[in-house]
Automatic annotation (TrEMBL):
Pathway: Purine metabolism; IMP biosynthesis via de novo pathway; N(2)-formyl-N(1)-(5-phospho-D-ribosyl)glycinamide from N(1)-(5-phospho-D-ribosyl)glycinamide (10-formyl THF route): step 1/1. The keyword Transcription does not apply. It is an enzyme of class 2 (transferase). Pfam families: Formyl_trans_N. GO terms for biological process: 'de novo' IMP biosynthetic process. This is phosphoribosylglycinamide formyltransferase 1. Signal peptide: none annotated. Residues 4-184 form the Formyl transferase N-terminal domain. Belongs to the GART family. It comes from termite gut metagenome. Its EC number is 2.1.2.2.
């Protein structure tokens, strides 16, 4: 039994595509669903190209979380783990409660710096350059009820030189995202499966066999 993952994304979805590609032949992870809050988000086209089911839940559906929970429950496969890859809305509390330590996000800077509401996409890289930072990078973290404040799982750095424009920084940060995000997802899911095995020894055989642990 593989771990079924849903990717949440609001925009282009280049990270989503990289993740989908990485896990195409995985025995551990199945990317089972892509959800966007925007019906014209390019990530939906990328999902179609890879034959991954996708859905749109408009902004109003994220406020109470009912619409997204219904979608996850009605989906043909139960979703076990959620990855935010450029998802711009707050994750509703119902979802956080249903997926404790099973929702992770990538932020394009070294948190706790340059995080919080409004700090997304190019805004982050512009702020990094304006502050004269000598380095930036990526932070992969668990999601909690506050923007960009969940426990940090992994960070990687890149240099920022005085000549760098926000676009230059974005390129360096994207390269780090593509390199590390899929691997960290894999490690985090493996850890989560191992914890589950400890908590439910009866299920351990099922998990270890199916996940090659
Ligand atoms: C990435 O930089 C990610 O860190 C941030 O949003 C951006 C999404 O880019 N959370 P893409 O849609 O994956 O190209």
């Amino acid at each position: 039994m593989k771990t079924n993952v849903a990717i949440l994304a609001s925009g282009s979805g280049s990270n989503a595509e990289n993740i989908i590609h990485y896990f195409e032949k995985s025995n551990l992870v199945e990317i089972s669903l892509v959800i966007s809050n925007k019906e014209n988000a390019y990530v939906l086209e990328r999902a179609r190209r890879f034959n991954i089911p996708s859905a749109v839940v408009p902004k109003s559906g994220w406020e109470t979380g009912v619409a997204v929970m219904t979608l996850l429950q009605q989906h043909q496969t139960t979703i076990d783990f959620i990855v935010l890859a450029g998802f711009l809305l707050r994750v509703p509390d119902t979802l956080l409660r249903a997926y404790p330590n099973k929702i992770i996000n990538i932020h394009p800077a070294l948190l706790p710096k340059f995080g919080g509401k409004g700090m997304y996409g190019d805004n982050v890289h512009k702020a990094v350059v304006a502050a004269g930072e000598k380095e930036s990078g990526i932070t992969i973290h668990y999601v909690n009820e506050h923007y960009d404040e969940g426990q940090i799982i992994f960070q990687a750095k890149c240099e920022v030189s005085p000549e760098d424009s926000p676009e230059d920084v974005a390129k360096k940060v994207h390269a780090l995202e593509y390199k590390h995000f899929p691997e960290i997802i894999e490690k985090t899911i493996t850890k989560s499966c191992l914890n589950l095995m400890k908590q439910n020894p009866k299920d351990s055989d099922r998990y270890s066999k199916s996940n090659n642990l």
